[in-house]
């Protein structure tokens, strides 16, 4: 049993079952293959985490493509795979291919818990009272080496305006529960850019993985929202004792940096009106 859990953290693969290009430009399956080839240079991995928006069309075929990539890659390294739901995922296809939407995995004394933060039909996320109660029950007994929580929507504020209405709504109750239990790390995606920060009075590390599909330009003018070609992943080390370490790694391609979309303020408002949080129940 190793004294450190080594995690390959992927997110936002946005795969299609029929081979379509994301935004008509990005071959997301090729991007995933490039990410896994880059990650194959890692010396050791114990756990692969895929934190949501795994499919863009919700088809069983898209989830099979993902499982057919991640399953053998992890098996070759004697690693486990954990999947979480994202707002683009469809429960039926996800469950039929990848299994339950909320899971508990024990690995070398660490407990990995997935939470489904999806609100069907919406881009924002929420963890409701019933889910919090289930999670409280799961976490009632501490794990030997602590718990890692995985969900799609980060429980920390977004960086760009588009995601302000697509954020996790009312994250405080979840953060309070994590603070009161043995949660040592939160892994999330959704923002399409890397972010390493902390949450709650216990300063629990939060690692948001970069997307496989494209990269949010966090330095773009605040009134607009831009994404560019580019894929990456996070490598996270969780020791038995001591601080969590996270490294963000790119999987470069010749066309990195080219614009995938550039949304105007009106575009952002339309997305917010259609699927964002506006105080609705």
What this model shows, in words?
The protein has 281 residues and is an alpha/beta fold. It has a single domain, classed as Purple Acid Phosphatase, chain A, domain 2 (4-Layer Sandwich), CATH 3.60.21.10. The strands form three sheets. It has a six-stranded mixed β-sheet with strand order 4-5-6-7-9-8, covered by helices on one side. A hairpin with an 8-residue loop joins β10 and β11. It is globular and about 50 Å long. The N and C termini lie far apart (46 Å). The model has no long low-confidence stretch (mean pLDDT 97).
Rg, rounded, reads 18 Å
Give the topology string: H per helix, E per strand: EHEHEHEEHEHEEEEEEEEH
Strand content: 25-35%
Overall helicity: 10-25%
Q: N-to-C terminal Cα separation, in Å?
A: 46 Å
- Provide the CATH top-level class: Alpha Beta
For the largest beta-sheet, the strand count, sense and barrel status come to: 6 strands, mixed
Find the count of extended strands (DSSP E, 2+ residues). 14
Low-confidence stretches: none
Number of domains: 1
Q: Give me the side-by-side strand order of the main sheet.
A: 4-5-6-7-9-8
According to CATH, the fold-level topology is Purple Acid Phosphatase, chain A, domain 2
What's the architecture, going by CATH? Answer: 4-Layer Sandwich
Q: Mean pLDDT score, rounded?
A: 97
Number of helices: 6
- C-alpha geometry: globular
Oligomer type: single chain
Report the CATH superfamily. Metallo-dependent phosphatases
Based on helices, strands and strand pairing, what is the structural class? alpha/beta
């Amino acid at each position: 049993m190793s004294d450190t859990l080594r995690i390959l953290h992927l997110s936002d693969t946005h795969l299609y079952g029929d081979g379509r290009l994301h935004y008509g430009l990005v071959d997301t399956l090729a991007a995933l293959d490039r990410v896994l080839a880059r990650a194959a240079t890692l010396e050791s991995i114990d756990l692969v985490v895929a934190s949501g928006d795994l499919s863009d069309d919700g088809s069983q075929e898209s989830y099979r493509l993902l499982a057919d990539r991640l399953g053998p890659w992890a098996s070759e390294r004697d690693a486990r795979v954990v999947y979480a739901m994202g707002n683009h995922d469809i429960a039926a296809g996800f469950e039929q291919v990848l299994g339950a939407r909320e899971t508990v995995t024990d690995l070398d004394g660490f407990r990995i818990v997935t939470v489904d933060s999806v609100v069907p039909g919406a881009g924002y996320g929420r963890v409701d009272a019933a889910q919090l109660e289930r999670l409280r029950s799961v976490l009632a007994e501490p794990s030997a080496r602590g718990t890692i929580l995985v969900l799609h929507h980060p429980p920390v504020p977004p960086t760009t305006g588009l995601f302000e209405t697509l954020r996790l709504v009312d994250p405080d109750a979840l953060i309070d529960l994590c603070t009161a239990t043995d949660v040592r790390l939160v892994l999330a995606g959704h923002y399409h850019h890397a972010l390493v920060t902390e949450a709650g009075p216990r300063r629990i590390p939060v690692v948001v993985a970069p997307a496989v599909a494209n990269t949010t330009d966090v330095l773009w003018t605040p009134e607009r929202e831009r994404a560019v070609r580019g894929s990456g992943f996070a490598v996270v080390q969780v020791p038995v004792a001591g601080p969590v370490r996270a490294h963000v790694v790119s999987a470069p391609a010749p066309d990195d940096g080219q614009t995938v979309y550039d949304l105007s303020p009106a575009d952002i408002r339309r997305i917010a009106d259609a699927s964002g949080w506006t105080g609705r129940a």
